[in-house]
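Much of our argument rests on the idea that a fold can be written as discrete symbols. The record that follows shows the chain in one-letter code together with its fold in token form.
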Amino acid sequence: MLLVDAVETEDGDAALNQWLLRRGHQPAEAAAVIERMRKNWHRISQERLTRLLEQAGFRIKEPFFMAFGYLGILAEKA
């Protein structure tokens, strides 16, 4: 199974904020995007995601992508 999901970030979304600013967003716009994500998305930690997949009978083979709070992982049924 390939899964890409939003997860909590160690940097508190600082990297995403910098990326948005470099793409021409005003600071208030960038802050609003991040605030909507924090308010409307239920992001869990990578560790919690791993535990949930293991409880569902999956084994994490490897992460294949991580950027701006998105994690892509390859998992297989155990």
Observations:
- The two ends are 11 Å apart (CA to CA).
- Helices lie at 14-22, 27-40, 46-55.
- The CA atoms of residues 21 and 27 lie 7 Å apart.
- The mean pLDDT is 94.
